[in-house]
Amino acid sequence: MDRIKLHDRYFNLFIPNEKIEAAIRQTAMRINSDYSESGSVPVFLSVLNGSFMFTASLMKYITFPCELSFVKLSSYCGTSSTGQVKQLIGVSDSLKGRRVIIVEDIVDSGKTITDMYALLQAQEVEDIKVCTLFLKPAAYKGSVRIDYHAMEIGNEFIVGFGLDYDQLGRQYPDIYIVE
Ligand code: 5GP
Ligand code: MG
Fold first, then answer.
1. Residue with the nearest Cα to atom 5 of ligand 1?
2. Catalytically annotated residue among 105, 108, 115, 174
3. Which residues line ligand 1 (CB under 6 A)?
């Protein structure tokens, strides 16, 4: 499909699946070489919902022993003055002393990844690395290092391959750009 409609907007084909898969494979090979030396077993933390498809593709190319958990970053409905307190849900075992690789769909302003990073630091993990399918370098204002990114895009809005527009469009194997 060259053009899709989600809610009220039209999106055009932007990055075909083969190109995405090739970029993911390259990223996995970089991760494999960085984790080739012995050490504690790393755990990939896939941030739902957006990174489900990326995670499935990426993990098929990972060659070292590793664990995988799916997590979600949720707003915490407490009595915080800011109302911005986030909570990490889905982590059953302690991550203390673990080597963690965060798997994200897209890093835009960096707010989400900064929150995620802080929550993991609070759990006294041994090491945190960040791996994202897409990075928007012109939009990124965070200070967290983005260790691995499969592709870079401009400040456009994209959907497909796990990414949604108001919950629609996650299932498409290609990436579409808003018209
Ligand atoms: P940040 O916190 O880095 O500004 O934004 C990250 C989150 O915003 C992503 O996890 C994603 O949910 C959403 N986001 C940012 N840019 C895009 C985009 O181009 N397309 C889609 N579908 N979501 C985006
Ligand atoms: Mg997301």
1. 108
2. 108
3. 50, 105-113, 157-159, 163-165
Most distant pair of Cα atoms in the chain: their distance:
51
Per-residue confidence band for 83, with pLDDT thresholds at 50, 70 and 90: low
Atom of ligand 1 nearest to the CA of 153: 19
> How high is the mean pLDDT of the chain?
94
Please say if 164 is a catalytic residue.
no
3-state secondary structure the chain: CCEEEECCEEEEEEECHHHHHHHHHHHHHHHHHHCCCCCCCCEEEEECCCCHHHHHHHHCCCCCCCEEEEEEEEECCCCCCCCCCEEEECCCCCCCCCEEEEEEEEECCCHHHHHHHHHHHCCCCCEEEEEEEEECCCCCCCCCCCCEEEEECCCCCEEECCECECCECCCCCCEEEEC
**Which is higher by pLDDT, 109 or 37?**
109
Q: What is the mean pLDDT of residues 6-29?
A: 98
Residue with tokens 């039209």: 10
Per-residue pLDDT averaged across 144-166, rounded? 98
Tens-place pLDDT, residues 106-119:
999 999 999 999 99
pLDDT at 74: 83
